[in-house]
Amino acid sequence: RVLQLMNLTDSRLAQAGNEKLELAMLSFFEQFRKIYIGDQVQKSSKLYRRLSEVLGLNDETMVLSVFIGKIITNLKYWGRCEPITSKTLQLLNDLSIGYPFGKSPWIPWEKGRVSRNVRKLVKLSAVQFMLNNHTSEHFSFLGINNQSNLTDMRCRTTFYTALGRLLMVDLG
């Protein structure tokens, strides 16, 4: 239901949005990621069967695509809202780290091995879009202005750290 609500609210973002609702959805995504996305997750879980029936999301790659789509949408429409931007970028950062085959979540690469989910993520067209279009034209929080503050710089750092990780996977 959260994913259905997200589709509805995202379609209306050009007119208006609700900051608290967006933050709640991001909290949902974070919990969903921790529980249902990972190399150790059972792919035959009831959740994935239900997602397939209701939303046509047949596998983890399709769910990751929804996550990245939400991240791009938030960065496009909520780029001047620091709480949403920060939480969105943290989700991107967490996805870019991945969990390498049951090892420590703090080490994204161990002896050249990268989480299968991070490899799936890099192949998504939306991730390729971010890697190729990381400018203020597409992501307003990247805009340089005289009012740049420490929070803006942290957001940029988180964004480029995540993109750097994804680029390194892409480069092999």
UniProtKB/TrEMBL annotation:
Residues 1-103, 117-148 form the Exportin-7/Ran-binding protein 17 TPR repeats domain. InterPro entries: TPR_XPO7/RBP17, XPO4/7-like. It is found in: Cytoplasm; Nucleus. Its main location: cytoplasm. Keywords: Cytoplasm, Nucleus, Protein transport, Transport. GO terms for biological process: protein export from nucleus. One of its GO terms (molecular function) is nuclear export signal receptor activity. GO terms for cellular component: cytoplasm; nuclear pore. Belongs to the exportin family. This is XPO7 protein.
